[in-house]
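Input for the complex:
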Amino acid sequence: MSELVIDQLAVRVGGKTILSGVSLTVRSGEVHAVMGPNGAGKSTLSNAVMGRAGYDVASGSMRLDGRELLALETWERAQAGLFYAMQAPTEVPGVSLEDMLAAAIGASGGAAGDLGERLQTEAAAVGFDLALLDRSLNVDLSGGEKKRSETIQMSVLHPRIALIDELDSGLDVDGLRTVARRIEQLTESGMGVLVITHFPRLLHELKADQVHVLAQGRIVASGGPELALELERTGYGDYLEDEPPVSPAASRPQIDDPFFMG
Amino acid sequence: MGGSFELVSFPFTGDRAAELGADPARASAARAAVETGLPDTSAEVWRYSPVAELDLDGLRPVTAAPEHPIPAPAHYDEEVAGITVAATVTVVDGFVTSIDVADGWRAKGLNISAEPVSVPALEEPPNFFDHLYTAFAPDGVCIEISPDLVVTDPILIRSHLTADAAGFIGLQVRLGSDSEATVFEYQTSEGGGLAVPMTVFDLGAGAHLRHTYLQDLQHTSWQVGRMISNVAEHATLSSGLLAFGGRYGRLRTDTSLNGRGAKGELIGAYFCDGNQILDYRTFQQHAAPDTISDLLFKGTVDDEAGSVYTGMIHIHPEGAGSNAFQTNRNVKLGEDAWAWSVPNLEIENNDVRCSHASTVSPVDPDQRFYLHSRGVPPTIADRLIVAGFFEEALRRMPVVPAARIARALISDKLDHRLASR
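Predicted:
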């Protein structure tokens, strides 16, 4: 039994407060959905939990099975049992899925012996073209293929808690169903899920035990699956104050690269 | 001439040119070297080079082919020793010490001999090293490919520089019309010394030369070289330039696309660390219609090392319909490492398609984060990303075994980096 406890988390990006006191607990086998309009700070939450540079935790804590994550680097958080399925997975030229996973498994002290075989099995399970396994990570993959690749990685690494950001983007209805089935199987064998989406209908495919509405940096409502149905009907209007939402541009750190010469 | 020539003017600084012997061209080149002196680093083409630090007095003249077995460098046995070759040529300190052409290929018209390389007129006045080459070079490797002959196996040139030697290393490849060949040059050294390669390619109409030069000198050795290519109509030069060694490793390439549809492809990969400086100067002349240049140079600099890439693509008025692409990308690993990258275009015909791009940047933070988020530790993540960065160039290397050695050498450098941190 694992649990991720996020307690009164406040996060600043580029000096601006994006999250101001988010609390959530995700346990093994549970699916939690964090929903909210664009710019509510949903991706900031997952990036902050993973410890991405530029997402500064101003206060609060995050503990995985009692271990404070703030003291850990990103890779150590992953080794501790977190996985982050990204909205737009990064392209890494020249590095294959197998190379990366072998390095991750190797660093955990595990043996990557049958990794090639496992990748084939997991790829087949989510309808990922086996020929794409040899490609560089996410390079020249469609949006849907990238999401399938993220799911394959999740299956192989078998995290305690998976953060899944906008799972549906790029996937067609059948693809979403396939990927959601695989994630549900993983939850049945003990993985906890924090799924982040602005799109309530996603939860037709990936059933959430609990739904949280994130607006203006705080969780403003929590409830069972019926909350998602309500959001589908009414939208987020009821949860927004007059103040405009934070623009998506401001929620991402700007990294200056003095060496770039156009 | 050649191997019997008495090299008596070392050190280069004294005026002893008169002792050079009976060959007036050599004597005059030796005098010119002394008069010209080491290049001036205030001149643009020598900027950023440490050429003023070259210790000429520490160089050892070589007057005859040394009796020196060529060592098998790292990864040679696994990646090269077993391949089927059309010919193997060994060169020590610029002297051709053996030529072994497979009987089948000799019968079909592959001719390799040791002869003086005929160097075409240079675009600019010869520099110090050009004069030295003219004065001191022994016979070089001359490869003749008859018209229509397609040599499917690579020709391997294993070239080695002994300790502190000044080696003038000539290579001339002439391809008859519609012929094809693959040439793999593998240059190593024992330590110290100066290698001055002079490589001349002449491609007849419709010919295709696949070439890769792998430079894995010791970090105390110097190299200042040239590669001059003339490419006739519908001929293709595919050249791979790999550099990992040398205190200072410089190569200037001049590619003239002289006939309609001529193509010059240059793919470079280099990795310098410690106090190394690797320096590429590429010049592409589009002197005929519908010619194509495709250049991709990828490099990594670590520690206090530096790299220079300056490229010039010149589309002449006759170059209508030409395509020219020039890309240089550098990853800067060490805080104090540097990379200077200047792609240039000079276009004298408007009916062309040209692009150039250049970047010098640290390891991409998003790529890093992606790997970290999977549980890959930072040092290993950087290792994967940097090795992966080179793949775009290595997959395009015209000589596949050279790419395999390059991967292994990059791996060695990255392992060394991991171990030292």
